[in-house]
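User: tokens in, sequence out, please.
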């Protein structure tokens, strides 16, 4: 991701694409102390990133993407910051380190630039499969797929008639345009009604899941939530969903204002704000032992460095 760094007065200005500039203090408590140039093994290649750390080594801002190590090192020397280059042995180690948030942590949603041409997505064979999940979810998926197939069929017929009219002017295919127009209006109405039904039912179901203690969401970005399904505890992020074998939850807050959730005995660290009432309801419904603690800065540093994995 493209990133521009600059200094204005006593602040480090981080210019982020499609986001307002982020300002980080260069003086006082919890100031930027180190620019960390990091790498970790990814799928088939090493992935790189840049992080701004405070004096305790906690992350204030992290940016994915490869950039010139020499340029970053020179910039750090120019403004009097420490520079550190670190290659993590595993992606888990990188996530654990990046999840250790500073009180001045700034959350930024990194978006890729939109493609020059929109993607054309077709329903595919998944729409023809029998239900593999809850029937309540399956019928909504089938309604959505059915509308997609109707749109594709209408588009194919319309293109075919246009091509025939252009290639064979003697053919009386224009008689098919009248019924086709009526079908288009009916299809448009069907699509609108179907979309309203699917979205409305989905939102109501989402609210019910939270109220009933089946889903627990982290506030803000990046996306992260816990889902309880048939006695299984699932951790869902923007990239994937995995099953977690944990029976305890630790909801912590630090004196400096940092909050987060720990699953199991140091199994997963999920920094960010988790609503205490919803967390208690989720734990009670799903038989999880919940502990709520207020940590000192030293306790927070000791706790977060011992994690096995995390979702920054």
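Assistant: Sequence out:
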């Amino acid at each position: 991701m493209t990133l521009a760094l600059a200094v204005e007065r006593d602040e480090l200005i981080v210019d982020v694409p499609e986001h307002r500039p982020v300002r980080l203090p260069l003086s006082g408590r919890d100031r930027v102390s180190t620019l960390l140039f990091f790498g970790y093994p990814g799928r088939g290649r090493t992935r790189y990133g840049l992080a701004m750390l405070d004096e305790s080594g906690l992350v204030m801002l992290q940016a994915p993407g490869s950039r010139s190590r020499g340029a970053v090192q020179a910039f750090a020397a120019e403004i009097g910051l420490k520079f550190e280059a670190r290659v993590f042995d595993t992606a888990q180690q990188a996530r654990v380190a990046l999840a250790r948030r500073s009180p001045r942590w700034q959350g930024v949603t990194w978006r890729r630039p939109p493609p020059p041409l929109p993607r054309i997505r077709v329903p595919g064979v998944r729409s023809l499969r029998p239900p593999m999940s809850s029937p309540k979810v399956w019928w909504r998926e089938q309604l959505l797929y059915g509308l997609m197939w109707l749109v594709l069929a209408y588009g194919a017929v319309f293109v075919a008639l246009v091509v025939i009219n252009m290639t064979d002017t003697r053919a009386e295919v224009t008689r098919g345009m009248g019924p086709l127009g009526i079908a288009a209006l009916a299809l448009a109405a069907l699509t609108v009604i179907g979309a309203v039904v699917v979205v409305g039912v989905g939102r109501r179901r989402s609210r019910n899941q939270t109220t009933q203690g089946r889903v627990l969401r982290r506030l803000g970005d990046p996306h992260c939530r816990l889902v309880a399904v048939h006695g299984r505890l699932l951790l869902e992020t923007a990239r994937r969903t995995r099953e977690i074998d944990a029976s305890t939850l630790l909801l912590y807050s630090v004196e400096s204002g940092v909050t987060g959730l720990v699953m199991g005995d140091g199994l997963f660290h999920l920094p960010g704000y988790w609503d205490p009432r919803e967390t208690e309801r989720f734990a009670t419904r799903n038989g999880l032992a919940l502990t709520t603690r207020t940590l000192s800065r030293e306790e927070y540093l000791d706790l977060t460095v011992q994690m096995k994995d995390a979702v920054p």
